[in-house]
Structure formats: C-alpha cells, structure tokens
Amino acid sequence: MAHTSREANLLGACALAIAERLPPDASDAALVALSTWLAGTTVDGLARVLRLTHSGAVRLADRLERDGLLERRPGSDGRTRALQLTSDGLAAAAGLQSRRFATLEDVLEPLSAGDRTALTPLLEQLLAGLTTDRASARRTCRLCAPDVCGHPARCPVTLAVH
Q1: Alpha helices in the chain (DSSP H)
Q2: Residue 158, domain extent
Q3: Same domain, yes or no, for 104 and 32?
Q4: Which of 7, 28, 60, 134 has the greatest CB tally within 10 Å of its CB?
Q5: Distances (CA, A) of 67 to 33, 38, 59, 89
C-alpha cells in the first residue's frame, strides 16, 4: 500500500473536520449563491452549480418557492424563468453566511495573526490549483461571499479561469 505525505494526510483530516462544522445542504448553497453572483439564473444554471439533476433543481426551487424564499420571474429570453430570492430568502442567506463566517473564524482561532497572513497565499494557491474550468469555479464558489474574497480582481478562483 502506497503511503501519502504527512501534509496530504493532515490536509484531508482538516478538510473533513471543517466540512463537518459546515454541513451545507443544497438549499443552503442555493440560497447563498442566489443571494449574490447566481441571482437571476435559471433552474439549469442552479443545477449545474449544485451538481443536481434538472428534476432535482426543479424540486429544490419548488421547495424554496413554497417556503416563500424564492420567486420565479420572466427570464431573459421569454422561454426561461429567472430565480430570484425574496426578502425572506435574502435574510435567510445572510443568516447562513453569518453562521458560516463565525464557524470559519472559530476554525482559524488557534492561528496567530502572522500565521493567518502566511496561510492566505497558500489557500490562494490551493484554490487556483483546484480550479480546472469555469464550471468547477462556480461550484467552488457556491457558498462564497464575493465582496470578501475580492471578486473579481483578487479572487484566486476567478483568476484561475481567466
């Protein structure tokens, strides 16, 4: 059996520990993405970002609409419907982002200010390396706060696909 590096093993454990603290489901990811860069997309656009089937995205949109978080408006070409969050949907997305950032700040708590400064370019390199195309960028950024990452000028994911 081949062994991997200690760094790879530690990264995997860290990724899993963080993921367990941030259990976003498709509804959470849809709300956050639709509150920013994905606002006005179609069901097909939502399906691609969340890696859902078309019917899965339709059911998700139906559920969010039934809960008063989303509304369908006329799309850009007359054949499609644009997905827009309601004021309740925007408030729910803001709450999700707030909880996400609080959790991530807790994860970073053991690091000194200097450690955090040193970590930033390493995270940027990893994100750029993980970004293979525009579709992977959109999936990676589904829970992102574009104003925080510096999109588009400083976002490592955006820069990797341009």
Answers
A1: 6-21, 26-34, 43-50, 54-66, 87-108, 113-130, 134-140, 146-149, 156-161
A2: 111-162
A3: yes
A4: 60
A5: 17, 19, 12, 9
Residues 83 and 47 sit within 8 Å (Cβ to Cβ): no
Q: What is the pLDDT along the chain (162 residues), one digit of tens a residue?
A: 677 899 999 999 999 999 999 877 899 999 999 999 999 999 999 999 999 999 999 999 999 999 999 999 999 888 899 999 999 999 999 999 999 999 999 999 999 999 999 999 999 999 999 999 999 999 999 999 999 989 999 999 999 998
Q: Are residues 145 and 87 in the same domain?
A: no
Closest C-alpha to 83, from 123, 37, 125, 120: 37
What CA–CA distance (Å, rounded) separates 86 from 148? 23
15 inside domain = no
Does this model's pTM top 0.85? My answer is yes
